[in-house]
Amino acid sequence: MLTRGTIIKGIAGFYYVKTADALYMCRARGIFKKEGVTPLVGDEVVIGIQDAEEGVVDEILPRRNAFIRPPVANIDVFIAVVATKDPAPNPEILDRFLVTAEAAGVASIVCFNKTDLRDGAVGDGTEAIYASLYPTVPVSAKTGEGIDGLKALIGDRRAAFAGVSGVGKSSLINRLLLRDDLITGTVSERTGRGRHTTRHVEIFDTDFGAAICDTPGYSAFEGWSGRDTGDERLDAFFPEIGFYGEGCRFDDCRHTREPGCAVTAALDAGLIAASRYASYVRMLAEAERNTSEYRMKKGSTR
Ligand SMILES: Nc1nc2c(ncn2[C@@H]2O[C@H](COP(=O)(O)OP(=O)(O)O)[C@@H](O)[C@H]2O)c(=O)[nH]1
Ligand SMILES: [Mg+2]
Ligand SMILES: [Zn+2]
């Protein structure tokens, strides 16, 4: 019997598929591996039911979006979690993450956790930079401060948490789910890939209408690569650079001190944050290097 469902968890080659009335542990059909397709948490699938608890993933329905890191599909919004400190914010990792989401057309919320640790009311200035660019919310998973604001921003969407290890993703999800067992649950899961490199991603239903997805175990977010932009321009994925770039003298301005560049003028005027511009320049260099490598490879096979 075939039925539709959603992959809510993937562990060691097993996919847990939730259908209208049950949860099935499924293997994927061999054909996926042959075609290089990996089912992802968040996928809508058709499964063949074998018995009351087991089935086989037969077909993956078309995806709205899909990501390699974190490995999730059909996400409405990303919660990019940054800690006020421990670990200190890394703007470049955050910017790479936000560009990945922008390139896929997925909304982002920037969540500053561990406000209980911050010195002064607004931290080190990182929060202010992102507050002008994305819906931003300061929270403390420890004290509960800001959790209602985070819930309000998520609404009834399917949200995936992302961010480097230790920022408090699992602690925030425990808060949102009114649970306290997630961290242990996640860490002790056997994956066959070593204790600290779990690939376990899981979607949880909340009592406020949202579905939230924990994505543990990344030391850095490496999702974006220059090639992801394809023919599109990197500046379109930095909202403020795209905005000021409208005023540049040349349509193909790279915003690296070309004559009449409105972006570098805005940078000099303090309207664009230096850290954001630094991320843009580094990623632009990668995109251009990747593109020329790509062109060379293509040329050599002709
Ligand atoms: N002081 C403080 N510590 C927190 C907060 N949120 C998480 N932590 C701690 O930070 C560490 C990492 O949290 P965890 O949720 O496992 O982070 P994850 O790797 O992003 O899932 C744990 O020791 C938590 O107790 C917070 O809001 N304030
Ligand atoms: Mg975690
Ligand atoms: Zn320019």
Describe the 3D structure.
A 5-stranded mixed β-barrel has the order 1-2-3-5-4. The model is unreliable at 184-198 (pLDDT under 50). The protein contains 9 helices and 11 strands. By secondary structure, the chain is of the alpha/beta class. It has 3 domains: 2-60, OB fold (Dihydrolipoamide Acetyltransferase, E2P) (Beta Barrel); 77-214, 3-Layer(aba) Sandwich (Rossmann fold), CATH 3.40.50; 227-301, Orthogonal Bundle (Ribonucleotide Reductase Protein R1, domain 1), CATH 1.10.40. Helix 2 packs across helix 9.
Overview in brief:
The chain has 302 residues and is α/β, with parallel strands linked by helices. Helices cover 30% and strands 22% of the residues.
Query: What is the element string, with H for helices and E for strands?
Result: EEEHEEEHEHEHEHHEEHHH
What level of helicity do the residues show?
25-40%
How many angstroms separate the termini? 48 Å
**Number of beta-strand segments:** 11
Name of the CATH class of the largest domain: Alpha Beta
Arrangement of strands in the largest sheet = 1-2-3-5-4
Based on Cα principal axes, name the global outline: flat
Mean pLDDT: 86
Helix segment tally: 9
Poorly predicted regions are 184-198
> Which topology of the largest domain does CATH recognise?
Rossmann fold
In CATH, the architecture of the largest domain is 3-Layer(aba) Sandwich
Largest sheet: 5 strands, mixed, barrel
Structural class: alpha/beta
Ligands, ions, cofactors: guanosine-5'-diphosphate, magnesium ion, zinc ion
